[in-house]
C-alpha cells in the first residue's frame, strides 16, 4: 500500500546526494523492522536510486543519556533493538549502532548518504535532535510519521481542550490512515557496505552490563522487548482476554488490558498494526473494538497533541490550564491529614494498602493498570505538601518506574491528575474544583483480588 503523503514531511529540500552510497534511515522512534512507514519509504527511495539502505541508532548513557532512563528502560530498549537488527539483516538492510546521540550518528553517516530519512516523535528532546540534524546535514531529509494513526497536525492545528474536542476530528480522518503496510522488497542489499558499528546489540545483556546507568531500578521479567514479542502478545490477547474488554477494561483484576503500552512507547509495534488487528478480532464485540480504539487512538493521540502544542509540558507552571492552577493555589494552605515523603511513597509505605499494592506493582514490574494510575496520582496530590511538589513527585515516580514512562501519555496523564483535559468539579479541601478520587473508587472492581494479583506478579519477579 502507498504511504499517505500526509505522513511525509520534507525537512530539507534539495536533490539527493549523487555521491552517496546508501539511503540512511535514523531508527529513533520506530524501533522495528516491520510495519514501519519510515523504513518502507527508505527502501522505496533506495530501490529508485539504485543503492542499499542503512538504518542507524545512537545509544547514549550516563549523564548524556535519555533523561530519567535507567537500567529497566534500557534493557527493554536493547531487547527490542536486538530483535530489530535481526529482522533488518534478513531483509537486507544494514544496521549501525554507536555510542552517540541520534543527531550525532545521523549527521556523521549522512555525509555519505544519498538521502536521510527520519521517523518522528513529539517530545522536546526529539524535536531538538531533528533541528540539530536539519541544521547540519546537507543532503535531502524526509521525515515519515509512523508513531500515530493520524498525524498530529492533520488531526488538529491547535492544542485541544479535551478528548471530546479531538474525537470527532480523528473519527473523520482515521479510516484514511488505517491501511495495511506492505513490506517492500530490498533490491540492493547492504551486505557489501563496510560501515563501523561500535555496538553489537545481538547480546543485549552484555551491552547493558557495559553501560553507565542507574541500576537501582532493575529490568523486569514481566515484559520482554521487541516487535516479535509484541506481536505474540497481541495475537494471544485478541484470541482471549480481548473479548469483554468493553465491560472489563477498568477492572485491574480482570486481566482485560493488552499491555501494549511499553511496546508503543519504544516504537516496537505500530498503532496502525494494532488497530487493524483489533478491527478484525474474533472473538470480540463491536463494543470491545470501539472501546479499544478509543484508548489506542483518541486518548493516545490527545496526549501527542498535548506535548506537541505545549512548550513546557513537563512543568507545573506551563502544563496545566489556568483554572486548575488557580483553584489548587486557593486550597494550597489546607491541612493534609496524611503527608508522606517521596521516599515513603516510592517504598509504598502509606496507610492505604491498595495504593501501596499499586505502587509495588509499578516499582517491581514496570506496569500499573490505568484505573489504578488515576487513583495513585490523585492520592499523591492529597498526600503531598503542595500541588507543585505533588506534580513533581508524580512525574518523577512515573518516569522512574514505568516501562512506558517519559512518554507523551505519561506527561499528559500526570497533568490530568491536576486538571488537564478536564473540567471543574465540586469544590473540596486540597483539590479545590480539580476532580477528586476517594477510596470509594476501589469499589468499582475487586480490590482484594487485585492484591492477590500483585502478590503473584511480584513473586514472579523474584
UniProtKB/TrEMBL annotation:
Gene label: phrB
Any one biological process term the GO annotation gives: photoreactive repair
Keywords: DNA damage, DNA repair, DNA-binding, FAD, Flavoprotein, Lyase
Domain Photolyase/cryptochrome alpha/beta: 21-152
Protein source organism: Methylobacterium haplocladii
Name of the protein described by the UniProt record: Deoxyribodipyrimidine photo-lyase
Similarity comment: family membership: Belongs to the DNA photolyase class-2 family.
Cleaved signal peptide residues: none
Enzyme class name: lyase
Biological classification of the source: Bacteria, Pseudomonadati, Pseudomonadota, Alphaproteobacteria, Hyphomicrobiales
Amino acid at each position: 500500500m502507498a504511504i499517505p503523503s500526509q505522513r511525509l514531511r520534507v525537512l530539507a529540500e534539495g536533490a539527493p546526494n549523487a555521491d552517496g552510497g546508501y539511503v540512511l534511515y535514523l531508527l529513533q522512534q520506530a524501533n522495528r523492522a516491520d510495519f514501519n512507514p519510515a523504513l518502507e519509504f527508505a527502501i522505496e527511495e533506495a530501490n529508485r536510486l539504485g543503492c542499499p539502505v542503512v538504518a542507524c541508532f545512537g545509544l547514549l548513557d550516563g549523564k548524556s543519556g535519555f533523561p530519567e532512563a535507567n537500567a529497566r528502560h534500557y534493557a527493554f530498549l536493547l531487547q527490542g533493538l536486538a530483535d530489530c537488527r535481526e529482522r533488518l539483516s534478513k531483509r537486507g538492510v544494514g544496521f549501525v549502532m554507536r555510542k552517540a546521540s541520534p543527531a550525532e550518528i545521523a549527521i556523521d553517516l549522512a555525509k555519505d548518504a544519498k538521502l536521510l530519512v527520519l521517523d518522528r516523535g513529539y517530545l522536546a528532546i526529539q524535536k531538538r535532535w531533528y533541528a540539530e540534524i536539519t541544521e547540519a546535514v546537507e543532503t535531502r531529509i524526509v521525515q515519515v510519521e509512523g508513531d500515530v494513526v493520524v498525524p498530529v497536525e492533520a488531526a488538529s492545528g491547535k492544542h485541544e481542550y479535551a478528548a471530546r474536542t479531538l474525537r470527532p476530528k480523528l473519527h473523520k480522518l482515521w479510516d484514511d490512515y488505517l491501511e495495511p503496510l506492505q513490506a517492500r522488497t530490498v533490491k540492493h542489499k547492504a551486505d557489501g557496505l563496510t560501515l563501523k558499528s561500535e555496538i553489537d546489540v545481538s547480546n543485549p545483556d552484555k551491552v547493558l552490563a557495559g553501560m553507565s546507568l542507574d541500576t537501582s531500578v532493575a529490568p523486569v521479567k514481566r515484559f520482554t522487548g521487541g516487535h516479535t514479542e509484541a506481536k505474540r502478545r497481541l495475537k494471544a490477547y485478541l484470541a482471549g482476554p480481548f473479548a469483554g474488554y468493553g465491560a472489563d477494561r477498568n477492572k485491574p483484576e480482570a486481566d482485560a488490558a493488552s499491555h501494549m503500552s511499553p511496546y508503543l512507547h519504544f516504537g516496537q509495534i505500530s498503532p496502525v498494526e494494532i488497530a487493524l488487528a483489533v478491527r478484525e478480532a474474533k472473538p470480540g464485540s463491536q463494543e470491545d473494538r470501539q472501546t479499544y480504539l478509543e484508548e489506542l487512538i483518541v486518548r493516545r493521540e490527545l496526549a501527542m497533541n498535548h506535548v506537541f502544542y505545549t512548550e513546557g509540558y513537563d512543568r507545573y507552571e506551563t502544563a496545566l490550564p489556568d483554572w486548575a492552577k488557580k483553584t489548587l493555589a486557593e486550597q494550597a494552605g489546607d491541612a493534609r491529614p496524611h503527608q508522606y515523603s517521596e521516599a515513603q511513597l516510592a517504598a509504598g509505605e502509606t496507610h492505604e494498602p491498595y495504593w501501596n499494592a499499586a505502587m509495588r506493582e509499578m516499582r517491581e514490574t514496570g506496569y500499573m493498570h490505568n484505573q489504578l494510575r488515576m487513583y495513585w496520582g490523585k492520592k499523591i496530590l492529597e498526600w503531598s505538601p503542595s500541588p507543585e511538589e505533588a506534580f513533581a513527585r508524580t512525574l518523577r515516580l512515573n518516569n522512574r518506574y514505568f516501562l512506558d514512562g517519559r512518554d507523551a501519555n505519561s506527561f499528559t496523564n500526570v497533568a490530568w491528575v491536576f486538571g488537564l483535559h478536564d473540567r471543574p468539579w465540586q469544590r473540596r479541601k486540597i483539590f479545590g474544583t480539580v476532580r477528586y478520587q476517594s477510596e470509594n473508587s476501589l469499589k468499582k472492581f475487586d480490590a482484594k483480588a487485585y492484591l492477590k494479583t500483585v502478590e503473584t506478579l511480584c513473586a514472579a519477579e523474584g
